[in-house]
Amino acid sequence: MVAGLVLALSSAGVSAAQAAPAAPAGGRAGDRFVTHTRVLNSEALLRIGRAAIREAHRRGQRVTVAIVDRSGATRLVLKTAHAGPQTEESAKRKAFTAVSFGQPTSKLAANAVGDGPTIRDIPGTLFLAGGVPVISGGMPIAGIGVGGAPQGSIDEAIARAGLRAVEGALGR
């Protein structure tokens, strides 16, 4: 049972930052200044969220699951009972980082080290394991972030369980 609250669930509204590359030549007349963007619908958001929460319960973890769209806007937040207050921000930032770079946050951590400026300096990012991108049409269209488990690898496993709930139904 989901003991949390759905804080944000939106199936409409696409920002300019979500704009995909323009449709190829030969598109419909009048589409010259229009781009078509892939976004997760509310059914996909809920499937991902429910699957991730089920996995968290199976593992006995108190976490928050967040899903952001390509522009970084929060689309869904779910919390298990007794998830700490820090878990929401952590989950959102992991989701944002995963969609921004199109890679799991666990793979990005190596690029976030050094004495000079690095990708860790980009506002809103968090380079701890627990964020995975949702890929459709070869592009990241969303990020799933989980925060709260004692190890990032557990957060990432929970996020991947959410992703598996929609794999095969995301288009190419």
Automatic annotation (TrEMBL):
Residues 1-19 form the signal peptide. It comes from the Bacteria. InterPro entries: GlcG_carb_metab_protein (IPR052517), PduO/GlcC-like (IPR005624), PduO/GlcC-like_sf (IPR038084). SUPFAM superfamilies: GlcG-like. Keywords: Signal. This is Heme-binding protein.
